[in-house]
User: Fold these one by one.
Assistant:
Number 1:
Amino acid sequence: MEAGDIVKYTPTSTVGKVVDIKSMDGKVWVKLDKTNLYYVADRLVAADPSEYKLVSFKEKESTFKGTASVGDLRKMEKEVDISEMMPSGGG
């Protein structure tokens, strides 16, 4: 395993590119670019490159389609009745 390899963390199926490898406390730790976290190397396996896709924040698709003014947002805020979404009763 070396920097640039595509690997999968088997417990969660997280796929990422190896960006750093270090040894600590008798274990080998591998840092993945997707999560920016270190994983124990024993739990990583080689992954197919087709499983890896780096998505930046700017590339993520927005769920809001359209435009709204501040006035529109205030009107929508007043129209929402959250009492139907909240559990009733005291506590």
Number 2:
Amino acid sequence: MTNSDDPTKRKRMSSTQRREDFITKAIAFFAEEGFESSTRGLARKLGVTQPLLYRYFPSKDDLIREVYDAVYVNRWRVEWESILTDRSRSVEARLNTFYTVYTDVIFNREWMRIYLFSGLKGADINRRYMQLVRHRILEPIVAEARAELGLAPRPALDSEIEFAWVMHGGIFYYGVRDLVYESALETRKDRVIADAVAAFVAGLAIKLRQGSEQIPDPHEPPSLN
């Protein structure tokens, strides 16, 4: 019997360690079984009683929130934001670096499967993460692209955010096809990222310039024509 299988060893875990152990095992469980499984099934998988599980997580939603924090929030790196806003480099170079390190974190089977299961169930995980992506990735990208083009700063339009989602979602779905469906055609992730970023940067420049021409200056009087 290994130490991890020895009940006496498990009893020596502190409350914090046991909680973290439950979260780690719940991540693996939800990645394989989805979110429709009962807490009874999860407790059985963890080898504990349902009442014990409820001592740490009063409801299934509480446990799902902990899984969200562990899988998504806690894997966020503060330095990523610095990469996106480093104006000593071109936006294209920044995006290539950012998406390389970002996908190093999110391109794993558990991350992908939990995200997809969450979407199918309608769980709040996806909506919360999409807001995080918008505020920490997409809005800064659009703002930095405007700065590089010499355009006046302003909040990103929804259409510009959607345009950025096309690139972000395309890179993400490459990971899904690679890790979940095992059907990706290109084996070099860096090449996929470079192609997606180059197309996006070129298209966004056109879109931002057009948008600036179409949006009236609030300080100018309205035209009488």
